[in-house]
# Entry
Amino acid sequence: MDEKQIREALQTVLHPKLKKSLIDTGMIRNISIDDNAVKLTLALKSDRSPLKEILIHEIEKVVGELPEISSVQIEFTTLNREEIGRLFPKPPLKGIEKVKHFLAVASGKGGVGKTTIAVNVALALVKQGYKVGLLDADVYGPSVPVMLDISEALYQDDNMIMPKEKYGLQIMSLGMTVEQNEAFIWRGPLVSKVIHQLLDQVQWGELDYLVIDLPPGTGDPSITIAQAIPHCSILMITTPQEIALADVRRAIGLFNKLGQPIVGLVENMSYFLCSNCTEPIEIFGHGGGVRLSQETGLPLLGTIPIDLELRQSGDDGVPIMVSATNSLAGLVFQTIAQKISDAMQ
Ligand SMILES: Nc1ncnc2c1ncn2[C@@H]1O[C@H](COP(=O)(O)OP(=O)(O)O)[C@@H](O)[C@H]1O
Ligand SMILES: [Mg+2]
# Structure
C-alpha cells in the first residue's frame, strides 16, 4: 500500500454539500503510512462542523477496507480563509449587485472625523457627477443621521429596504431604524448578520460609489465587509499625533492581511488657522500623515484643518459640502474625492 492507492480509494468519499471528492477539494492532507497504520489530516470549515462524524466514518470505512491496512488515525485542522472562500463561494449580495465601486472609510480609533469625512467625500463625489450611496456601517454609533439631519424611518418595498435620498446621496443607517439615542450592543455574529443585511436587503440600485462609514478599529464589521466585498477599497483616516498612529498601523495591517486595497490616507485635524494668527497652530502635533505615508507607501490624499465651521456643520446636519462647498475644508474634500475617483477608475 502506498499513498497513491490511499488517495485513489478516498476519491470515492464525497463532501455531502460540495458533491466533490475530499481529495479533489484538498480537504485530505498529510497522508502517511507506517507499518500498515494510516495517518491523515482532514481539513474542515470549522472545528464543530456537523459533517465531521459522517466524514470520519466514511474515511475509516474506505481506508479500513483496503488490504493490509490495520488502522486509520485522523487528525483535524481548519481550512484557511482563502480556501473557505474558494470552496464555499457566497451568493452575490442582492442589494449591491449594481454598485461599481466600494469605498470604506476606516480609522484606528473613534472621534478622528471618520463620519465627517465619509459624508463630505461622498457629497464631493456627487458634485463630480457620480451616483453615490452612503452606508453607515458604524453599528456601535451610527452618526450619519445626525450629520445629515435625517429623522425619517425607512420603508420597505418588495422586501427590500429603500435608502433615503438627501443632497443627491442614497443613505442608509441603522440610526434610521431605531431610536437615535438607543445604545447599541452587538455581539460578533449579530454584527456580521446586520452588515450582511445592509448590503443584501437594501435596494442600493445603480451606483458608481458606495461609501461605507466603518466603525473604528479592527473589529468584526471590518472583517465582515472585507469578506462580503473583497474588492472594497479603504480610505484610512488619521490624525497628526504619534500616539494615534499605532492604532492606524494596526488597522492598515489588518486590511493588508485581508487583501483589501487601501486607496490612501487622509490626515484630519491637521492644524488650526485662527483668524488673528499668521502661522497655523498644530494642536495635535505635526506630520503623522506624512510619516505614515512614507512608512507605508500609501498616498496622503489630503490634510484637513481643524475648522469650526466644519464642526458646526456636522452638528447642524448640513454638511460643509452643502453649506460652504468652496470653503477651505470643502476644497480639500473635493481634492480628496478627485484623487479617489482617479485612483479607482
Ligand atoms: N477637521 C475638523 N475640524 C473640526 N471639527 C471636526 C473636524 N473633524 C471632525 N470634527 C468634529 O469632531 C467630532 C467627531 O467627528 P466624527 O466625524 O464624528 O468622528 P468619527 O466618525 O471618527 O467618530 C464631530 O463633532 C465632528 O464635527
Ligand atoms: Mg463616526
